[in-house]
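Morning F.,

Quick status update on the modeling queue. The single chain you submitted on Monday has been processed. Sequence for confirmation:
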Amino acid sequence: MRQDLMEILVCPLCKGDLTLTIAAVEGDEVLTGDLFCPACNEHYPIDDGIPNLLPPDMRASMAAAADAPSGH
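Structure tokens below.
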């Protein structure tokens, strides 16, 4: 994720401003980190340069579906 995207990114729940915490960066690209909404007290992870801005309940559903046995 490019750091200049912080100018346009907002919380998907309340549209509030997000705070960026960087764990790993390469040039202007944030590879891993965290976006935090102080208004909602919600965190959104950044993995492999991709911010996951899904609402928390959708992230939990997707994680559970990815961990479930496929039955194939």
